[in-house]
Amino acid sequence: MPAQSLYARLGGREAVEAVVSDFYDRVLADDSVAHYFDDIDMVEQRAHQVKFISAVAGGPVEYDGADMRAAHDHLDLSGEDFDAIAEHLAAALDENGVAPEDADAILDEVAALRAPILGQ
Predict the structure, then answer these.
(1) Which family does it belong to (predicted)?
(2) Which letter does DSSP use for residue 67 in this model?
(3) Where are the alpha helices (H) located in the chain, listed in sequence order?
(4) pTM for the whole thing?
(5) Distances from the Cα of 43 to the Cαs of 24, 49, 100, 119, in angstroms?
(6) 18, 20, 72, 79: least CB-packed within 10 angstroms?
(7) Dist CA 33 CA 61 (whole Å)
(8) Which residue has better confidence, 67 or 113?
(9) Is the alpha carbon torsion for 95, 68, 41, 49 positive or negative?
(10) How far is CA 120 from the centre of its chain?
(11) Using an 8 Å Cβ cutoff, are 57 and 10 in contact?
């Protein structure tokens, strides 16, 4: 029997939506990074993030977002900003019962995007 995908272990779309909802609640409550989302349609942003995490986790989703460098270039993000966002994602994964090894797999994928997101 094939190994269960990370997406399935997370609990599928509903579980990913719960993580993303919790994640953005945390981000928007953090004054150090919330301002990056002032002019963003958060319904669209949350849906976009659900697709991204689902794709990273091997779900049945095609992620068609913009190139990470292009999508974040205008924001002039710092390493501290990236770390704060990653910490909020880690907390949301933990709060929603994602197993540590599965959370690490997702966070490793996010960490691999650090350089392009920061324009490096």
Answers:
(1) Belongs to the truncated hemoglobin family. Group I subfamily.
(2) P
(3) 6-10, 12-28, 42-56, 68-72, 79-95, 100-111, 114-117
(4) 0.91
(5) 11, 10, 28, 26
(6) 79
(7) 28
(8) 113
(9) negative
(10) 20
(11) yes
Retrieve residue 28's tokens: 């928007």
CA atoms of 20 and 94, how far apart (whole Å): 12
Note the pLDDT of residue 106: 94
For the chain, domains (ranges, CATH) are 6-118 (1.10.490.10)
Phi-psi sector, 109: left (phi>0), alpha (psi -120 to 50), beta: alpha
On whether the CB atoms of residues 102 and 8 are closer than 8 A, the answer is no
Residue reference for tokens 């909802």: 21
CA distances from 45 to 23, 33, 62 (A): 12, 15, 16
How many CB atoms are closer than 10 A to CB 10?
A: 27
In tens, the pLDDT along 78-97 reads 999 999 999 999 999 999 99
Q: Which residue has the tokens 């999508």?
A: 71
